[in-house]
Amino acid sequence: MGSAIRLGLTGGIGSGKSTVAHMLQALGAAVVDADAIARACTAAGGVAMPAILETFGPAFVTADGALDREQMRTLAFNDPQAKTRLEAIVHPLVGAEIAAQAQAAALAGVRCTVFDIPLLVESTSSSNWPSKLDRVLVVDCREETQVSRVVARTGMAAEMARKIVAAQASRASRRAAADVVLFNDDCSLDQLRYEVEQIGAHFGL
After folding, report:
1. How remote is the C-alpha of 188 from its chain's centroid?
2. Residue 33 CB: number of other CB atoms within 10 A?
3. Of 22, 168, 173, 204, whose CB neighbour count within 10 A is largest?
4. Beta strand pairing status for 180-183 and 5-11?
Protein backbone atom coordinates (compact mmCIF):
# COMPACT_ATOMS: atom_id res chain seq x y z
CA MET A 1 0.00 0.00 0.00
CA GLY A 2 1.36 3.43 -0.97
CA SER A 3 1.85 6.44 1.23
CA ALA A 4 -1.18 8.41 2.35
CA ILE A 5 -2.09 11.43 0.25
CA ARG A 6 -1.49 14.76 1.98
CA LEU A 7 -4.19 17.13 0.75
CA GLY A 8 -4.08 20.83 1.52
CA LEU A 9 -7.51 22.42 1.90
CA THR A 10 -8.01 26.16 1.86
CA GLY A 11 -10.52 28.85 0.99
CA GLY A 12 -11.48 32.34 2.07
CA ILE A 13 -13.67 33.08 5.06
CA GLY A 14 -17.27 32.12 4.30
CA SER A 15 -16.31 29.88 1.38
CA GLY A 16 -17.65 26.72 3.00
CA LYS A 17 -14.20 25.23 3.55
CA SER A 18 -15.05 23.85 6.99
CA THR A 19 -18.17 22.16 5.62
CA VAL A 20 -16.05 20.53 2.92
CA ALA A 21 -13.55 19.40 5.56
CA HIS A 22 -16.32 17.72 7.55
CA MET A 23 -17.57 15.99 4.41
CA LEU A 24 -14.09 14.70 3.60
CA GLN A 25 -13.77 13.48 7.19
CA ALA A 26 -17.07 11.62 6.83
CA LEU A 27 -15.58 9.86 3.79
CA GLY A 28 -12.69 8.61 5.91
CA ALA A 29 -10.05 11.34 5.70
CA ALA A 30 -8.11 12.44 8.75
CA VAL A 31 -8.54 16.21 9.09
CA VAL A 32 -5.85 18.36 10.71
CA ASP A 33 -7.60 21.67 11.42
CA ALA A 34 -5.11 24.51 11.83
CA ASP A 35 -7.80 26.97 12.96
CA ALA A 36 -9.07 24.62 15.66
CA ILE A 37 -5.52 24.11 16.88
CA ALA A 38 -4.91 27.88 16.96
CA ARG A 39 -8.15 28.40 18.90
CA ALA A 40 -7.10 25.78 21.44
CA CYS A 41 -3.72 27.49 21.84
CA THR A 42 -5.42 30.82 22.56
CA ALA A 43 -8.30 29.52 24.68
CA ALA A 44 -8.36 29.82 28.46
CA GLY A 45 -5.37 27.82 29.69
CA GLY A 46 -3.99 27.52 26.14
CA VAL A 47 -0.25 27.14 25.68
CA ALA A 48 0.04 30.50 23.87
CA MET A 49 -1.68 32.57 26.55
CA PRO A 50 1.27 33.31 28.88
CA ALA A 51 3.29 34.78 26.00
CA ILE A 52 0.25 36.69 24.69
CA LEU A 53 -0.35 38.22 28.10
CA GLU A 54 3.29 39.20 28.41
CA THR A 55 3.47 40.67 24.89
CA PHE A 56 0.12 42.46 24.61
CA GLY A 57 -1.00 42.96 28.21
CA PRO A 58 -4.23 42.15 30.08
CA ALA A 59 -6.40 44.29 27.77
CA PHE A 60 -6.15 41.50 25.19
CA VAL A 61 -7.10 38.69 27.57
CA THR A 62 -10.70 37.93 28.57
CA ALA A 63 -11.81 37.50 32.17
CA ASP A 64 -11.55 33.72 31.85
CA GLY A 65 -8.00 33.89 30.48
CA ALA A 66 -8.55 33.47 26.72
CA LEU A 67 -7.41 35.71 23.88
CA ASP A 68 -9.85 38.57 23.37
CA ARG A 69 -10.36 38.03 19.65
CA GLU A 70 -12.34 41.21 19.01
CA GLN A 71 -9.70 43.39 20.64
CA MET A 72 -6.91 41.61 18.80
CA ARG A 73 -8.73 41.80 15.45
CA THR A 74 -9.17 45.56 15.85
CA LEU A 75 -5.53 46.03 16.82
CA ALA A 76 -4.26 43.87 13.95
CA PHE A 77 -6.22 45.83 11.35
CA ASN A 78 -4.71 49.08 12.61
CA ASP A 79 -1.22 47.80 13.41
CA PRO A 80 0.22 45.13 11.06
CA GLN A 81 3.16 44.65 13.42
CA ALA A 82 0.75 43.44 16.11
CA LYS A 83 -0.40 40.68 13.78
CA THR A 84 3.24 39.73 13.16
CA ARG A 85 3.95 39.57 16.90
CA LEU A 86 0.90 37.41 17.52
CA GLU A 87 1.83 35.04 14.70
CA ALA A 88 5.37 34.71 16.07
CA ILE A 89 3.83 33.35 19.27
CA VAL A 90 1.07 31.19 17.86
CA HIS A 91 2.43 29.77 14.59
CA PRO A 92 5.28 27.66 16.04
CA LEU A 93 2.88 26.10 18.56
CA VAL A 94 0.31 25.40 15.85
CA GLY A 95 2.99 23.95 13.58
CA ALA A 96 4.16 21.53 16.24
CA GLU A 97 0.62 20.29 16.90
CA ILE A 98 -0.10 19.94 13.16
CA ALA A 99 3.00 17.76 12.84
CA ALA A 100 1.94 15.63 15.80
CA GLN A 101 -1.57 15.09 14.44
CA ALA A 102 -0.24 14.27 10.96
CA GLN A 103 2.12 11.71 12.40
CA ALA A 104 -0.73 10.13 14.37
CA ALA A 105 -2.83 9.91 11.19
CA ALA A 106 0.04 8.29 9.29
CA LEU A 107 0.54 5.73 12.07
CA ALA A 108 -3.19 4.98 11.97
CA GLY A 109 -2.88 4.12 8.29
CA VAL A 110 -5.39 6.62 6.88
CA ARG A 111 -5.42 6.91 3.08
CA CYS A 112 -5.80 10.68 2.96
CA THR A 113 -4.84 13.35 5.49
CA VAL A 114 -6.49 16.72 4.90
CA PHE A 115 -4.60 19.77 6.17
CA ASP A 116 -7.27 22.44 6.67
CA ILE A 117 -5.17 25.61 6.42
CA PRO A 118 -7.22 28.81 6.01
CA LEU A 119 -4.17 30.95 5.16
CA LEU A 120 -2.34 28.33 3.10
CA VAL A 121 -1.80 30.66 0.14
CA GLU A 122 -0.87 33.64 2.33
CA SER A 123 1.73 31.61 4.24
CA THR A 124 3.33 29.91 1.22
CA SER A 125 6.16 32.43 0.99
CA SER A 126 7.02 32.08 4.68
CA SER A 127 6.57 28.34 5.06
CA ASN A 128 7.38 25.13 3.26
CA TRP A 129 3.79 23.97 2.93
CA PRO A 130 4.10 23.25 -0.81
CA SER A 131 6.80 20.66 -0.12
CA LYS A 132 4.63 19.01 2.55
CA LEU A 133 1.52 18.55 0.39
CA ASP A 134 0.72 16.30 -2.55
CA ARG A 135 -2.28 18.32 -3.77
CA VAL A 136 -4.16 21.52 -2.89
CA LEU A 137 -7.97 21.77 -2.93
CA VAL A 138 -9.40 25.30 -2.94
CA VAL A 139 -13.02 26.02 -2.03
CA ASP A 140 -14.06 29.09 -3.97
CA CYS A 141 -17.08 31.39 -4.17
CA ARG A 142 -17.91 35.00 -5.00
CA GLU A 143 -16.75 37.63 -2.49
CA GLU A 144 -20.28 38.89 -1.91
CA THR A 145 -21.29 35.33 -1.04
CA GLN A 146 -18.44 35.19 1.49
CA VAL A 147 -19.60 38.42 3.11
CA SER A 148 -23.26 37.39 3.30
CA ARG A 149 -22.37 34.01 4.82
CA VAL A 150 -20.10 35.56 7.45
CA VAL A 151 -22.74 38.14 8.41
CA ALA A 152 -25.44 35.45 8.63
CA ARG A 153 -23.25 33.09 10.65
CA THR A 154 -21.64 35.51 13.09
CA GLY A 155 -23.75 38.66 13.12
CA MET A 156 -20.63 40.62 12.18
CA ALA A 157 -21.11 43.94 10.44
CA ALA A 158 -20.86 43.63 6.66
CA GLU A 159 -18.14 46.29 6.57
CA MET A 160 -15.91 44.27 8.92
CA ALA A 161 -16.59 41.09 6.96
CA ARG A 162 -15.53 42.86 3.75
CA LYS A 163 -12.31 44.04 5.44
CA ILE A 164 -11.49 40.47 6.46
CA VAL A 165 -12.16 39.19 2.94
CA ALA A 166 -10.00 41.98 1.48
CA ALA A 167 -7.15 41.20 3.88
CA GLN A 168 -6.99 37.57 2.75
CA ALA A 169 -5.44 36.27 -0.46
CA SER A 170 -7.40 37.08 -3.59
CA ARG A 171 -9.60 34.49 -5.25
CA ALA A 172 -7.23 34.51 -8.22
CA SER A 173 -4.23 33.78 -5.97
CA ARG A 174 -5.97 30.86 -4.32
CA ARG A 175 -7.13 29.41 -7.61
CA ALA A 176 -3.61 29.73 -9.02
CA ALA A 177 -2.29 27.65 -6.12
CA ALA A 178 -4.94 24.95 -6.54
CA ASP A 179 -4.73 21.52 -8.09
CA VAL A 180 -8.51 21.25 -7.69
CA VAL A 181 -11.06 24.09 -7.35
CA LEU A 182 -14.49 23.42 -5.86
CA PHE A 183 -16.85 26.29 -6.68
CA ASN A 184 -19.28 26.50 -3.77
CA ASP A 185 -21.68 29.27 -4.67
CA ASP A 186 -25.46 28.92 -4.75
CA CYS A 187 -25.43 25.14 -4.44
CA SER A 188 -27.27 22.94 -1.95
CA LEU A 189 -25.59 20.78 0.68
CA ASP A 190 -26.51 17.70 -1.33
CA GLN A 191 -24.90 19.15 -4.44
CA LEU A 192 -21.80 20.09 -2.45
CA ARG A 193 -21.62 16.61 -0.91
CA TYR A 194 -21.79 15.06 -4.38
CA GLU A 195 -18.90 17.25 -5.58
CA VAL A 196 -16.85 16.37 -2.49
CA GLU A 197 -17.49 12.66 -3.04
CA GLN A 198 -16.27 12.94 -6.63
CA ILE A 199 -13.13 14.76 -5.48
CA GLY A 200 -12.58 12.37 -2.58
CA ALA A 201 -12.62 9.37 -4.92
CA HIS A 202 -9.48 10.77 -6.58
CA PHE A 203 -7.72 10.86 -3.22
CA GLY A 204 -8.45 7.33 -2.07
CA LEU A 205 -11.67 8.08 -0.18
Report:
1. 22
2. 21
3. 168
4. unpaired
Q: Rounded to whole angstroms, how far apart are CA atoms 201 and 205? A: 5
- C-beta contacts of 153-158 below 8 A and 24+ residues apart: 153/14
Adjacency order of strands within the sheet including 112-116: 30-33, 112-116, 5-11, 135-140, 180-183
Question: Of the given ranges (54-68, 83-97, 119-133), which has the lowest mean pLDDT?
Answer: 119-133
- Between CA 7 and CA 48 the distance in angstroms is 27
- The one-letter amino acid code at 52 reads I
Q: Which amino acid is at 186?
A: D
**Percent of the chain with pLDDT strictly greater than 90:** 79
Number of H helices, E strands in the chain: 11, 5
pLDDT tens-digit profile of 126-178?
A: 566 767 899 999 999 999 999 999 999 999 999 999 999 998 999 999 999 99
Phi-psi label, residue 70: left if phi above 0, alpha if psi -120 to 50, beta otherwise: alpha
**CB neighbour list of residue 56: distance below 8 Å, 6 or more residues apart:** 72, 75, 82, 85, 86
Question: Residue 12, CB half-sphere, CA atoms under 13 Å: how many?
Answer: 29
CB 145 within 8 A of CB 17: no
Query: Are 68 and 102 in contact, with CB atoms under 8 Å apart?
Result: no
